[in-house]
Amino acid sequence: MSTATLPPRHRTQRTPRQGRGGDTAITGTSLLARALVRRTRWSWLAWIVCLVAIFPATAGAYRQSVPDTAAGAEMARTLAANPTMRAILGPPFDLLNVGPFVMWRVGTFAIALAGIMAILGVVKGTRAEEEDGRLEVLRSGAVGRHAPLAASALVSLAGCAAVGLLAGAAMAGPSGDVIGSVALGLAVGLGAAVWVGVAAVAAQVTESARGARGLALGALGAAYGLRAVADGSDPMITGLQWASPLDWPALSRPYADERWLVLLLPAALTAALVALAFVLEGRRDHGAGLRPATLGPADASRSLRDAPSLTWRLDRTTVVSWSIGLAIFAYGMGTLASSLSTLLADNPVLAERFRRMGAGAQDLQDAFYVAMIGILVPIVALLALQLFGVLRREEERGHAELLLSTAVSRPQLLVSHVAAAVLVPTLVLVGLGFFMALPQVVAGDGLGLAVTLAGAGLAQLPGVLLVLGLAVALHGWLPRLGLVPWLVVGWSLAMSWLGEVMGLPEALVRATPFAPLPRLPVEQLAWTPIVVSLLVALALMAVGLVGYRRRDLSTG
């Protein structure tokens, strides 16, 4: 059989024009990079602005967190020695100065978010484009085989560099230390760049964009968990710290006797992973992954008899990976809660900070649980948006149109995805309460706490549904504004993580869909905000359904 008779997926990818890895293999990289920036510029801009703003905002609230008094110095010492705080935020160095404090307080958190930005950017420009068939069209022209991967990596690395450069520049004034700010900028930029390489490799391993995102985000979650275990141990497990790339930026010690050689670790790992991605791309067929997909049965099973069944099949990998990651995080936080009161007994200033994060609870353990739920609920809202976002991807690939050509109606298709995005977060919120209380359950007296925390999570569910309702309404009428619900959740997460600690105005901190809802078990159960939020969410979903029945799918 001649090569010309083979389907495109199985043809040999190396052609005389592309050569064996010379410059022609990346022909057209600059053109593809410009096109990618044009299509994704607003999402990159939103990511970069939000990430950079975290650093000067935290610096501005430094003296509210660590007063310039003897009590402030004692609080800084307690913070540095507290395993709970180290597990959440990372290893501290010299918290009596604003620069090291900012790096400790938000550095690792911002780098992890920048890593998510990098992963999404690389997968969108590589595996997602390949899965949708656009790369095959591009490669039929004067475009080298590795040009799409090179363009996506360059754009994502530029995004990481922009975050690092601007974060360092923003901290030069508040810290008064230009050298330390340069170190912070390099640490942030290089720490995020590692995940460009991880995503580039993941895009070669799997056959789907969803699988590549799941693999890369799973690696990021594992690195964060490994870092939390190493930093939260008492004493810290030094060897394990160096095993997590998310700990390297902090270990380079910006503003605190900088260790410049440590920054070679993320730089070298990024270069090695990107080079590996190019090698792996040369060893696979277009449209395929290094891990081949198994053949399914000739006939569909009864579990694929309708639209909801298909939706579950599309969502199950995302649901399993998110559920496992959130359960591990909730359990880890639960193990820290029981020792919090003892650790903060001699530090009333720090204890008061925890009470502010925990809706003013006098009991520090209750305050800790409320604060953790406040952080986890916006993350669950992200899960809801990702599950509903599957419908948009199915439309872009033409799969939804094929499905609608059968007996499936538009309302059935929309409702199947909305139902999954409602049911899964509901179950996850209940599960998070159980896993957070699991250490107490194992100790023999935590069943009541598990029920209480599950109820606390469910009390915040209307906020998740409100965000989902906004996404449904926009998808029905203005699908090009689909980024708006993600920005709302991002703002909510930033306020839950930083708002109270930084002492931001109350009106600003409470400008989220979750703020009006009761924060159990500290606050009284108030049904009015719950019912109002549910009614508004249902109304938004109904509006979205009306719009979805009327609009042309191609306008999305």
Outline the structure in words.
It is a single chain. By secondary structure, the protein is an all-alpha fold. It has a domain at 26-292. Helices cover 71% and strands 0% of the residues. It is built from 24 helices and no strands. α1 runs antiparallel to α5 and α1 (29-60) runs parallel beside α8 (147-175). The protein is globular, with a radius of gyration of 24 Å. The relative contact order is 0.09. Mean pLDDT is 84; it is low at 1-23.
Low-confidence stretches: 1-23
Number of strands: 0
* Measured distance between first and last alpha carbons: 42 Å
Q: Which class of secondary structure composition applies to the elements? A: mainly alpha
Q: What summary fits the major beta sheet?
A: none
Helix content: over 70%
Give the DSSP E fraction (strand runs of 2 or more residues). under 5%
> What's the tally of helices?
24
Shape: globular
How large, in whole angstroms, is the Cα Rg?
A: 24 Å
Task: Give the overall average pLDDT.
Answer: 84
Order of helices and strands: HHHHHHHHHHHHHHHHHHHHHHHH
Keywords: Membrane, Transmembrane, Transmembrane helix
Organism: Arsenicicoccus bolidensis
Protein name: ABC transporter permease
